[in-house]
Amino acid sequence: MTDFNLLDPELVAIGEARTKAQLSRQAFESFQGVTQEQADRIVDAMGQAAEAAAAELARLAVDETGYGVYEHKILKNLYNAKFCAHAMKKMRTLGVLWTDEVARVTAIGAPMGVIAAIIPVTNPTSTTIFKCLAAVKAGNAIVCAPHPRAAKCCVRTVEIMAEAAERAGAPIGLLQCLSGGQLPATRELMAHRDTALVMATGGAAMVRAAYSSGKPTLAVGAGNVPVYIHRSVADVSEAALMVITSKSFDNGTACVAEQSVVLDEPIADAAIKAFEQHGTVFLDAEQQRRLTELLFIGRGALNPEAVGQTATELARRIGMTVPPGTKVLGAALDDVGPQTPLSAEILGPVLSFYRTRDLGAAHQRCREVLAFGGEGHTLGLHGQDAEMVARMSDLPASRIVVNTPSLLGGMGFSAGTDPSFMLGTGTWSGSIVSDNVTPMHLINIKRVAHQNRPWRDIYLPTMGL
């Protein structure tokens, strides 16, 4: 008899990845031919199960990772289980998608196969819910590969949704999750012959590993989101409240939330006062130095022990006492780059602030912030001036959200972007997708194209034009 306790844990994890990829492929083959209506019924059951378990999964995520706010993680779970699932209902992903009678073309949606879904530690259960719903909506199987610090809560999330899917008619094994979160197992899964597509959400190293797997990859990485408050803003207090709400939500663990606030000089004093009234405590130079030492380790890498903590807790760790109700720590800065670490993305309730004399200076400052780790992600704007919006929209961001919290607008709740929990960052950051990812990105689209022009016209001088 083999003593499994003596086996190398890494080899066991790699074996698990191979086995689950193979089982998922078998389940996918059983699932092939499913109608849109059958897939929708299964997705509906999965969404309802995730909705019912939203609180349980939020508690597991907070307890296991030590990141974020329990109540906010419930909302993230519900956003995916209800809001995103509702948006998916309107999509047609399988069979005939549309027909162009004039061009004589019919588009047919076909699933891709087994999807390897990389799950981040900052939003583990909510991202798992979204990727499982999207995969099955598109007729695929899925194997989730969680961060090692979030493996248990992700396993439970997949377990709940898989049971609901199977009760609704899905084959056993259509949804699976690696149990340990080891990187070698994740690499094995991504490169496995039965994996058709990788959906990668995570840090830069994980995104690079995903693209190195040799498989088609939808990868989204970090953000460093600037928000500009222009002199034409309708209500500077409301703008400040939206930014603080966004950045403090789940203790700042969302990469789409604002990171740097760029203030137009005529409204800068009023904005600073509004930020203070809504719960921002500004740090002096010495406090900024201590916060930098807490948040960063090595060459600008975030300290994982300081991610996703409350502003009050961060203040305590640097020897500060802040008033009850403090939501965000603020740092007034005058440059951007590695020499000023607080200008980088911080997965916590910390905002940097800049004052700019005019639109040109604001444009330049936002460009600098995006170039420092945020290119391709998101830009926030507050103001009523259409020319300002047009001018700022030429910056390299995949979504420019106006007069709304960047978090809620970017993920498709309070603005017209597609509801999603996977936001593409485009080729600016090395990603093939700049959209908010939906089930439509998880299908192949075939075109049945009938002849609509005499083929001999190719020999005419005019080519029949």
Automatic annotation (TrEMBL):
GO terms for molecular function: acetaldehyde dehydrogenase (acetylating) activity. It comes from the Bacteria. The keyword Oxidoreductase applies. Residues 21-277 form the Aldehyde dehydrogenase domain. Its EC number is 1.2.1.10. Keywords: Oxidoreductase, Plasmid. The keyword Oxidoreductase applies. This is Acetaldehyde dehydrogenase. It comes from Methylibium petroleiphilum (strain ATCC BAA-1232 / LMG 22953 / PM1). The lineage of its organism: Bacteria, Pseudomonadati, Pseudomonadota, Betaproteobacteria, Burkholderiales.
